[in-house]
Amino acid sequence: MSRFDVLSWTTLYLASEWIIRLVMLIVVPFRRSPEAAKGWLLFVFFLPWPALLLYHVIGRPNYPRWRRERFARLPKAFAGVTARIAAATERQEPDLPENLRQAAVLIRNLGRFSNVDGNGIELLSDYDGSIGRLVEDIDGAARHVHLLFYIFADDRTGWRVIDALARAVERGVTCRVLIDALGSRAWAPRVTEALRKRGVEVHLVLPVGLLRRRSARADLRNHRKIAVIDGVVGYVGSQNIVDADFKPGITNRELVVRVTGPVVLELQGVFAADWFLETQEALDAPDLFPAPMRTGNAVAQVLPSGPDYPEAGIGLLIEALVHGARRRVVVTTPYFIPNEALLRAMATAVLRGVEVHLVLSKPVDQILVSLAQRSYYTELLAAGVRIHLYKDRLLHAKHLSIDRRISLIGSSNVDMRSFTLNSEVSLIVFDRTVTAALHAEQEEYFAASEELSLETWRARPLASKIVENIARLVSPLL
Fold it and tell me: Which residue ranges run through the membrane (predicted)?
């Protein structure tokens, strides 16, 4: 190749990079948060061609067309289910105080489920104990068992559940299982084979593959953890069906809610919708949505969120709850990559005299996310937010308490991925007793944590600050 040809190709390549930069400057900010836009544009500026290719693959938080078309058919396919849930719970709608009523209306508008009274709520923080309770409930099932989990392993914990499902099938119970294809990729072939051999209906959610006719995007996952037994007992929280120490050198601490009462029908509705999206089978038999019994005094509602929904529901809700706090906010999450709106909400809450606590895990399992997370500590501490680093285990629990009345427990982290990319589910409870129980759990975290001080944090090495801030620049892409 002549020198002229080399120069021509070099000029053409450089020109193409600037064309990509200019075009992406217009395209990227369209219908995207400023934080995410900045991350993408920085990537585009330094590496135009790799950024363009990656943007083509994961640049938009949208499911494939076939999935969007199925979701559009949900209202019609589930008209009977929606009516059945509404009829079963209409007598359970409570008269909340004005400030809580506004929160309940926001949740309903974001996720389509109303707040209902008469629920029994039990917090389960013992890892093996929560699996034991689930197995007990499966062993007591008479009609159906529905499980939806991001991770379902074939380890000791997984086999406890598999064996319980097998026993249920032998009794004539219909068992259906949904497992995220990527979250469970290390175990999925063996788990699905074991379940199918035992008569369990099982499907992988959002399978990914280059040669698949209907492949999903690798970054859009179903991160929910739901169990529903006979439409009368439900589980929701942070815990997967996997051993607590499935990651070498790390043991998880979780929090799960066992719930009974009318709100279980809403969890059933979330599972039924996800089942339809994967199988196109509408689960609308009357026995799936039995008339609820009053089992307690807690008011609760379910919020499903994810790319299927027009708003980033869980992110908006957390911001609104922090803005509405009057006394105390405690946010517990393993991954904290906030947007600017949430940072402002937390800082403003402190200025209003609200005690704001952020509980994070000192042991980490995702280095880049941890580095980006650490870059926010200085401004949070300077604003008066108290940061607690839980030392004993990887604190994988995900929950929020507001004052003495509102608890939010579910599968969602406080990061961009959970806000916009993952399908998540949260249980919101308006109850003093439940919030007091959650406060007791949080006090255990405080006692086992190292609380950061602004002076000590600012004294960390310069190299750490540089690496953390570089990670922060790409945090909207994590």
Answer: 6-28, 40-58
Is 197 an annotated catalytic residue?
no
Does residue 398 have an active-site annotation? yes
For residue 357, indicate whether it is catalytic.
no
Stated length of the chain = 478
Decide the pairing of beta strands 201-205 and 174-180. parallel
- List 117, 398, 415, 431, catalytic entry: 398
238 and 326 co-located in one domain = no
Whether residue 79 sits in one domain with residue 34: no
414-440 tens-digit pLDDT: 998 888 889 999 999 999 999 999 999
Write down the catalytic residue from 137, 180, 403, 415.
403
11: pLDDT confidence band, cut at 50, 70 and 90?
confident
Among 225, 357, 388, 399, the one annotated catalytic: 225
Question: Which residue among the candidates 230, 274, 308, 431 is catalytic per the annotation?
Answer: 230
Q: Which of 299, 327, 355 is the last residue of a domain?
A: 299
3-state helix, strand, coil in the chain (%, to 5): 50, 20, 30
Mean pLDDT of the chain: 89
- Taking the C-alpha atoms of residue 245 and residue 264, their distance in angstroms, rounded to an integer, is 30
Residue 167 has pLDDT above 80, yes or no: yes
17-34 tens-digit pLDDT: 888 888 887 777 765 666
> Please, how many CA atoms are within 13 Å of residue 197, restricted to the half-sphere of its CB?
8
Residue range 209-232, pLDDT digits in tens: 655 666 667 778 899 999 999 999
pLDDT at position 314 is 93
20 and 92 belong to one structural domain: no
Do 347 and 275 reside in the same domain of the chain? no
DSSP assignments along 274-338, one per residue = HHHHHH------GGGSPPP----SEEEEEEEESTTSSS-HHHHHHHHHHHH-SSEEEEE-S-B--
pLDDT tens digits, residue range 48-63?
878 777 776 666 666 6
From residue 300, alpha-carbon distances to 50, 65, 155, 330, 398 in Å are: 46, 34, 34, 19, 17
Q: Name the 3-class secondary structure at 111.
A: helix
Catalytic residue (one of 396, 399, 415, 431): 396
Among this protein's residues, is 403 annotated catalytic? Answer: yes
Question: Residue 478 and residue 474: Cα distance in Å, rounded?
Answer: 7
Identify whether residues 278 and 381 lie together within a single domain. no
Report which of 426, 388, 431, 438 is spatially closest to residue 124, judged by C-alpha positions: 438
pTM (2 d.p.): 0.90
